[in-house]
Design a protein that fits this description.
Structural class: alpha/beta
Number of domains: 2
Number of strands: 14
Order of helices and strands: EHEHEEEHEHEHEEEEHEHHEE
Shape: elongated
Radius of gyration: 19 Å
């Protein structure tokens, strides 16, 4: 099934050009020309990705990204912001809004499509439908629930993504940098030690039945999820 992209861009010539590029790459495109129309059109079936311009009539793309990320049914949809703003502070603002990537104009159609596919690849593992289970620790990607020996486990969204990545890549060692790329994304400005903080939180969340021991520190290399 073709992936759907919501394209939010107020300049008609640019919007038409982007639509042609995306459709030629096999995507189905829905369009919105301003802030309010984008909100109105964000209904089921929801798009697989949102591509939005920073400057929009009625509000900014950053504000729109925040609204989507606050809503229960749209918060997991990846967002890419398009902008002529190239300053680092602007990039950080865009990513802090919850955007998954930030593309500075001008850009080539090939770069845009490559970045879209890269973001979609990063979020695809979370969309796998089958629950994953190791020694009584169960993660259900669809209901977004985790249980340990039948007991419900509460954790934050980053810890959930981290656990999902570990459980789908068991017995492999990942450095902090690799975990940042795979869980946070390659364009997120966070320090390596951020991984340590979330590892501690994750271990604490699943320690009731000793499952925290599955997340092993490999000295000098990083972390590994293992039942051994």
């Amino acid at each position: 099934m073709a992936r759907t992209i919501m394209l939010v861009e107020d300049e008609a010539p640019i919007r038409e050009m982007l639509k042609i590029v995306l459709e030629q790459s096999g995507f189905v495109v829905t369009e919105a020309e301003d802030f309010d129309i984008a909100l109105e059109k964000m209904v089921e079936p929801y798009p697989d990705l949102i591509l939005l311009d920073w400057m929009l009539p009625g509000g900014s793309g950053v504000q729109l990204a925040r609204k989507f990320k606050e809503h229960e049914f749209t918060r997991d949809i990846p967002v890419i912001i398009l902008t002529a703003r190239g300053e680092e502070d602007d990039k950080i603002r865009g990513l802090d809004s919850g955007a998954d990537d930030y593309i500075t104009k001008p850009f080539s159609p090939k770069e845009l499509v490559a970045r879209i596919k890269a973001v979609m690849r990063r979020v695809t593992p979370t969309a796998k439908e089958e629950p994953i289970s190791f020694s009584g620790l169960v993660l259900d990607p669809i209901s977004h629930r985790v249980s340990a020996n039948g007991d419900s486990v509460e954790m934050g969204p980053t810890e959930f993504k981290l656990l999902h990545f570990f459980m789908t890549h068991a017995e492999r060692v990942y450095s902090r940098e690799q975990l940042l790329d795979n869980v946070w994304g390659t364009n997120v400005y966070v320090e390596d030690r951020t991984v340590d903080v979330h590892i501690r939180r994750l271990r604490k969340a699943i320690d009731l039945h000793g499952h925290d021991k599955m997340i092993q520190t490999v000295r000098g290399s990083g972390y590994r999820f293992s039942v051994k």
